[in-house]
Please model this.
Amino acid sequence: MKRSSVYDCSMIELPINHRERGNITVIENDITISFAVRRIYYLYDVPGGESRGGHAHKTLRQLIIAASGSFDVILNDGIIKRIFVLNRPYQGLLVTPGIWRELDNFSSGSVCLVLASQEYDVQDYIREYEEFLTWEKNDI
Ligand code: TYD
Model:
């Protein structure tokens, strides 16, 4: 399998449907994003200064959106780190499998919406960074 790179991850612009009474952004499977969504979850009420994530997924694809407020996503492929500031509900960060991620710098009241390509599977997680580095080196 090809080694994952942080450069395979990218911010995408999501469609905005402007309306006088507000905006709507619609995300459709295989149209807006290149995978089919099997699970949605969201983080909220994250205390200021708290961080989340601190893990990698072996096969999961995700689109991460700041549905409200802002936070930073730090992606790390074991060699290179990229930091993305998410602060627009019409932008999403596509995260490919095999990338270590951390989320921090949550603004008060922020909502981190995640669209995921698979159901929750504890076996898909790598929670120890050293284990991630070993897995990453061997996953070629
Ligand atoms: P986790 O993915 O570890 O969140 P973070 O890395 O942001 O801290 O999930 C936190 C807890 O929630 C963990 O005990 C597993 C549970 N969980 C589910 O049961 N289903 C899910 O879809 C997710 C994302 C988490």
